[in-house]
Please model this.
Amino acid sequence: MIDTPAVRNRVASRGTVARAFLTALARQANQPLVLLGDPGPVLDGAPTDIDIAIGVQARRNRARLVRGALDQLPWPARIVQVIQHEARAHYFAVAILVGERWELFHPDVTTDYVRVGRTFMGFDELVDGARPLVGAAGLSVPSPGTAAHYYVVKRVSKGNITQPGIDYLGDLLDAEPTPVRRAVTSLLGERHGASVLAAIERRSTASFESAARAARPELYSKHRPNVRERVAEAGRAVRRLIEPTGAAIAIYGTDGSGKGTLLAALRRDVGPAFRAVDEWHLFARVRPGEEDVPVTDPHGIAPRSTVMSAAKLAFYLGLAWLRRAPRIAVARRRARLVLFDRDVEDLWIDPQRYRFSLPDSVLQFAVKLFPKPDFALVLDADAATVLTRSQELGAATLELLAGRYRAYAEARPNVKVIDASGAPDEVALAAASALFAWLEERTARRLGLAPESLSSARPER
Model:
C-alpha cells in the first residue's frame, strides 16, 4: 500500500472510509462480517452505529481485532472508546483522521443479540443463511426473516422507529413476505404480530410505535433472563461503575483565547465518541439553546471583603460537591461527555474575575479541595493575538494570566497546552487529537494493554 502524507491525509467521503474500515475488519477477522440492520446508511457513511455479528467474544480480543483492521487503512486511526452496553456487546468509538479532521465510526460488535439482559437471538441464528452484500467485499447481511426478527426486537424494545427504519422493514417484507411474517408472528404472537406487520405494510411509524408498546410485554414474557444472564448483566453494571466511560473535560484560557469556538468544535468532533454531551460554565450547567451573556469588563468590579470572599469560596465548594459532583458522576456512568467552559482552577488563576481578595496561597489550597475534571486543555496565545479578538483585558494582564495557566499545566500530567494562535480549525484539530490520545490511553489501560497500543502504525503527521 502506498504510504505518503498525501495518501494518509487525503480527503475522502465518510462512505469511502466506512467501506474501507469494514472491509479491513472482515479481512482481519478472516470471516465475513454480518451487518445487522439496514446496511445502506452504514455504507453511505451516515453517523450511525454499525451493528456487527462476529464470532469473537472477549473484550480485549475484539479490541485487538479492530486495532488490526486500523493498520490496513491509509489514514491514521485509533480506538478511543470501548463501551460494554450489553453483556455480550461492545460499542467502539474509532477515530480516523481524514484530511484535517477526525471522523468517528461506531462498530457495535456482538455475538448473541442481547437487550435489557435478555438473549433474543444466538450467534448461529444471526449468521445462519447470511448472504454476501453486493459490492462490499467480505460483508454479509442476514436473510430477510432473520433481519426482520433482529430489527423488530430492537425497535419494539426501544419503542420507537424512524421513517427509514420502517421503510427498511417494509422492503424486507416486500422482498420475502413469508419468512418475514413467520419471524414477526413467532416473536410477538398472532395478535401483536398482526398489528406490527400491518404497520410495516402501511410504512407508518406512528402505527408501529403504538403496536410496539402493546407488544413489548409479550416479547419480554417470551424471553425472560436466566441466572447466567442476570449474573452477566450485574457484572456489566459493576464494571460501568468502576470504569465509567464518560469524561469531564475542562477548557481554560484567557478571554479571547477561543474557548467558546473550541467548545462548539469539540461537541461536533469529539462528542460522537460519547452517548451525549453536556456543557457547564463553572458550577452551572448550560442548557441547550441558552445564549452566553457577554462579559465586557471582567475585572471592573471591586473585590469583596476578605470575609465575604471566604464565604463565597465556601459556597462554591459546597456547590461543587453537593450539586455538581453527583451530576457529573451520573454523566460519567452514562458515557456522557461533560465540557467545562472555565473550571475551579480559574478561582486562583484569575481571582479578580470572581472578586476574591484572598491570598493566592489560600486560593490554591482551597482549590485542592474541589472535585477535578478528568482532563483539561489550556488554550495558549500571546497577548497580541488575543487582543485582535477581544479587548476586555490589557496586554500586561493577559500575559500574567497566560503565565499562570502555563504553570498550572506544567505541573499536571492530565493537562495539555494547545497553541491557540492559529486558525480555529487548526486549534480544534490539535485539541481533538490531544483528547483522543488521552482517551486511547485510558481505554488501553482498562483493557490491560500498553499505552498507544490502540493506534494504527501510521503517524498522524
The two ends are 18 Å apart (CA to CA).
